[in-house]
Amino acid sequence: MVVVICSLSLFSTGCSKEEELSNSDKLTGTWNVSETVSGTTVNYTTTITKVDDNNISISSDRPNPPVYFMNNLKVLVNWETMKLDGPGVVSGSITNDKDFNIDYYYGAGSSVYDVKQHYTR
Questions:
Q1: Beta strands in 1-121 (DSSP E)
Q2: How far apart are CA 21 and CA 27, in angstroms?
Q3: pLDDT in tens for each of the 121 residues of the chain?
């Protein structure tokens, strides 16, 4: 009888409750990006890493990213509002953990780029 109780005790310690992912963990990894600027669309992959529990960093995997690309862009992830907030004019919306959008403007005067990025995986 004692052996059975010890065996059950050892077995139950091996099972643990799955930890909940942080806001940023849900979006880390490699993503496919469809980016539209001034009516022209390009597709590429990018890597998103965790900065902390609520922030991600987006880095370009493009060999020669365009001047308007904000490399190592730090973005605040808010799952309650399904919004993404970056510096300045950077904002976005989350559809789910496999689909989100980021929009921003880059430049000044007559050289302003309206950048729309759609991320999927």
A1: 29-37, 40-52, 55-60, 73-78, 83-85, 91-96, 99-106, 113-120
A2: 10
A3: 444 444 444 444 444 445 688 889 999 999 999 999 988 999 999 999 999 999 999 988 777 777 777 778 899 999 999 999 998 889 999 999 999 999 998 888 888 889 999 999 9
Is 64 inside any structural domain? yes
Distance CA 78, CA 62 (A): 27
The answer to whether residue 3 is domain-embedded is no
Look up tokens 């992830």; give the residue: 77
- Which CATH number fits the domain that encloses residue 24? 2.40.128.20
Residue 54 lies in a domain: yes
Q: ∠ at Cα 95 (106, 89), nearest 5°?
A: 20
Indicate whether 14 belongs to any domain: no
| Count of the separate structural domains present in the chain | 1
